[in-house]
Amino acid sequence: MRQASIFTNTVDQPARITQWLIGKNAVVNQDSKGHVDYRNLLLPTLAWQTHHNNQRWITWIASQFIEKSMLEEYGVNLSSLRMIVDSHSDYSSFKLLLTALKNNRSSMVIASLPSLSDFQHYELEQAAAQGNCQAIILIH
Questions:
Q1: What mean pLDDT do residues 88-103 have?
Q2: To 10 degrees, what angle do helices 90-102 and 118-131 make?
Q3: By C-alpha distance, which of 53, 35, 47 is closest to 71?
Q4: What is each CA distance from 86 to 4, 27, 93, 101, 118, in whole angstroms?
């Protein structure tokens, strides 16, 4: 089973970007059609973060709308969550992710991308440092 990849820049500075590898033989389940089931891994994490966010947003950039009732079922504090639905392209999701990390309005940003190059990872680390933010990137 693959485990989450956590990158750090130095011993003194903790990672701001965490990648969760999802898909075949990964850390989350898929249904019979191959759709990823985030509920058991992401939603409890999201719920905890929305209750401990230092009065800044938890921003989730998603490719599809997530039902409000499902979020509430897992205890997500909706007043701390900012959902951005972007179904345009992986490129636009990456650009939204960079902007959300930089703007210092979120304590955490969650997004899903098909892959992440070393340079993109570097860009995200820089944006997260600038915005004093952390990110969870779901690699599918």
A1: 90
A2: 30
A3: 47
A4: 24, 24, 6, 16, 23
Residue 41 reports pLDDT greater than 70: yes
What DSSP line would sit under 18-82, residue for residue?
EEEE-STTSSSEE-TTS-EE-TTTHHHHHHHHHHSSTTSEEEEEESS---HHHHHHTT--GGGEE
- Residue recorded with tokens 């500075």: 13
Q: What is the mean pLDDT of the chain?
A: 79
Phi and psi, residue 66, nearest 5°? -105, 130
Antiparallel, parallel or unpaired: β 17-21 and 5-6:
antiparallel
